[in-house]
Amino acid sequence: MRLVFTLSAFLMLSICSSAQKITGIWRGYFSSSNGLYREGIQEEMYKYEIQIDQQPNNGLKGVTYSYKSTVFYGKASFQGIYNVKTKTIILKENSLIDLKIGDKSEPCLMTCYLDYSKMGKLEVLQGTFISINIKDKGDCGNGKIYLERVPDSDFEKEAFLSKKNSSPNKSATKKVAKPIAPNPKPTITNKANTLTNKIKPKIPNLKPATPSTKDLLQEQNNTKVEEPPVQPHIKREHIETQGREKRTVPVPKVLQERENKLVKTIVVDEENIQVDLFDNGTIDNDTISVFHNNKQIIKHGRLAFNPISIKIKCSTEDNLHELVVVAENLGEIPPNTALMVITAGKKRYEVFLTSNESRNAKVVIEFIPKH
């Protein structure tokens, strides 16, 4: 009987030790399909951050942050439970700690139903939520949530996180403080002194040869003075040849074998362009490669809430920029979909892209300067 009890206790301890700890900071977004927080607006997307403190009994407590620039800001406390076997979380916001909302907005409290998953080093909490109005307890809408574990917060860390992070720092500082003054240094200096003493008698023999070398160097410098006017022409030739090479970049195989469907042509008058690529809709591990004028600039980039950013420099000599998005996979929900946001000065353009294993999505940016 004792053996059975000890074995069962050992198994329970091993299960508890191998259980995933979710204490930490999780950040991403939630999207509402019923106009949450604003009337008449659908598919609104807000940033969402959770700071979780996992208890020994797998109960959860902590705070949530809901925000979207200065229009909406809310901090709430929550309680929840983590099921270790199914890796599911139920998280319920209890009360608001801080609130800053727009004129037509009403505060709501959310109840989240999340699933934990891990892909390599990436840890994800995703699922759905429902919400109720604080004032009248009415339905406030529902939607989807996507969060990733991150090391730092957009806000201040809660006390339970700062305490856990402070203890390893102390031990780390103690370990670093030990190797302050190694002994080999004085022995090296002594050897260096003896070496210099040995070399000193040989130095005078070399001094008579120095005047002739100086004269030779002066003669060489005098001859080199005539060369600088030629150098600018050489650089211009290099620039011209580099420009020709860029224009004659061979078409990659993937662009030859697949159809390159032109989605949109955008005319800009700004020299500096920024292109951001997001996953359009649910984050389902869509992966893409991007080609700029037949040159690959993004390889196997994963579309998510955080953008894949590209910067383009336009000029009158280089005024056409062709961007081709290639689907490396179809994600969990085919086809591969992306949202391209092009920012040119104060102007912003949104292009929805769809690609698959036989068709790429192409966007052309044409630069026409202001007159």
Structural overview:
The chain is built from 7 helices and 17 strands. It has helices at residues 2-18, 159-177, 184-199, 203-206, 210-224, 231-247, 253-257, and strands at residues 24-32, 44-54, 59-68, 72-83, 88-100, 108-119, 122-133, 139-150, 259-268, 272-279, 287-292, 295-302, 308-313, 320-327, 336-344, 347-355, 359-367. The strands form 3 sheets. It has an 8-stranded antiparallel beta barrel. The chain has a 5-stranded mixed sheet with strand order 9-17-14-11-12. The longest helix has 19 residues, at 159-177. The model is unreliable at 1-18, 35-42, 168-211, 223-228 and 230-246 (pLDDT under 50).
Give the topology, please:
Elements: H1 2-18, E1 24-32, E2 44-54, E3 59-68, E4 72-83, E5 88-100, E6 108-119, E7 122-133, E8 139-150, H2 159-177, H3 184-199, H4 203-206, H5 210-224, H6 231-247, H7 253-257, E9 259-268, E10 272-279, E11 287-292, E12 295-302, E13 308-313, E14 320-327, E15 336-344, E16 347-355, E17 359-367
Parallel strand pairs: 9-17
Antiparallel strand pairs: 1-2, 1-8, 2-3, 3-4, 4-5, 5-6, 6-7, 7-8, 10-13, 10-15, 11-12, 11-14, 14-17, 15-16
Q: What can be said about this structure in brief?
A:
This protein is α+β, with helices and mostly antiparallel strands and 371 residues long. It is built from 7 helices and 17 strands. Helix content is 25%, strand content 44%.
